[in-house]
């Protein structure tokens, strides 16, 4: 006797990506969210740094699929970069409620909290960040955690800037990999 499936719904995209797995766990907002025209338009907006338009399109995606984790991640990224870290925090907490071990959410939630001046909460969030596929970012997060624990420099702005610099460096390295 079969029972009906209840609870979270899964899109074809979620099933496809879970079956295929990931070659590398990237914490970059450059990861594609789908293969349709709207997804390509979102990617183009992000590539051109048109974050307002990307956010508008991502809101449309979320209106159709409210549990679309990658769309929430990208919208949170846009909100953070547009200077609206509280909105990013709200979205990333929602991602973590759906996927508690999500590295992207942990990384950018910590950054958003830093931008809000909630340094202690940012550090607690980053304690759950672990991604060996992103060594430059991992090293920067670990360094900031260690400095914080040793009562080193604790300017939230400086800490956020150091981690953002590591994210940019990691993206440059990932872009230059010949096997991609």
Structure description:
- This protein has 180 residues and is mainly α.
- It has a single domain, classed as Alpha Horseshoe (Serine Threonine Protein Phosphatase 5, Tetratricopeptide repeat), CATH 1.25.40.10.
- Helices cover 65% and strands 0% of the residues.
- The protein contains nine helices and no strands.
- The chain has helices spanning 12-20, 37-47, 51-64, 69-81, 85-98, 103-115, 119-126, 135-149, 156-175.
- Helix 2 (37-47) packs antiparallel against helix 3 (51-64), helix 3 (51-64) packs antiparallel against helix 4 and helix 4 (69-81) runs antiparallel to helix 5.
- The longest helix has 20 residues, at 156-175.
- The protein starts with 11 loop residues before the first helix and ends in a 5-residue tail after the last helix.
- Mean pLDDT is 85; it is low at 1-10 and 17-25.
